Amino acid sequence: MILLAIDTSSVSGSIALASANENLTDFKIIYQQYLSINITHSETLLPEIDNAFKKNKLDINQLSAVLVSIGPGSFTGIRIGLATAKGICTGLKIPLIPFNTLELLATNVYGTERQILSLIDARMNEAYISIYNHNLSIELPAELRPYDQICKDLNEKYLCVGHTHLITNNNDNFAFALAHQNIINASSMFSLLIYHNLPIEYNPEIINNTEPTYIRSSTN
To answer: Which residue of 55, 178, 202, 218 is 20 to 30 Å from 159, comparing CA positions?
Structure first.
């Protein structure tokens, strides 16, 4: 089967394709592409998806499921990505599988012995944060904090990933991911799909009822 992953949660985004057997024991990422930050996702997303299938000599009707990030992040970007994913899934009658963007970032540093502090700049002097343990279980659900309160009451040892420049605490409790690990990758959704053993099942209610995780009502 062919799986498509879409992330449009920030000004730059990405898409990825994977090929797998039905039980996901034979799994291969076959394509990944970052979307341009110079023009909007509404102009780039569908052409990039079409290009991905053409480059891999695939037909859209071969698609088995769409994985999509639903935030938190850019209000406009998330809305475009989710609407596109829903449209594809509705038209082809295939599963939609949503993912939290903060967990996608945490996946980039999976294996650390520290707790993972995942954060995204929400602008307006605030950040979205969440904390995961080394097994990617949630220690702190996603919430919105002012920049100067990001580290409030955080007393463990953390590996920070995402917009780590927002962390101003300079002590041994806070270590920082490498630059390339701070990028949200659409292909991370494939890893989470397998890691969490998520079902790939067509359910129209999931397609209809999945909504963006905004936390704040509107963020661009």
So the answer is: 218
